[in-house]
Amino acid sequence: MIKKYRPYIITFYILSAISLVVASFYDLQIDISLNNPDNIFAQWLRNTGEMPSRLICPLAGAVLYYTCSKKLKKLSP
Hints:
single chain, mainly alpha, about 80 residues, about 0% strand
């Protein structure tokens, strides 16, 4: 079965290596553009980057509520 997909696997690794080399040359330009305060996309990323920390407590509370609902029913009289 691996012989069947061998050209695709080799192509994937070659394209991955090429994209890593290309990305290493453009990394500084991408970093400068994402840290530019005048860039709207950079501002959006900065604002939405804080979102997971704000969502952890409500999501964790919902998970705890639904996983412990059987135990809570046993505790109530």
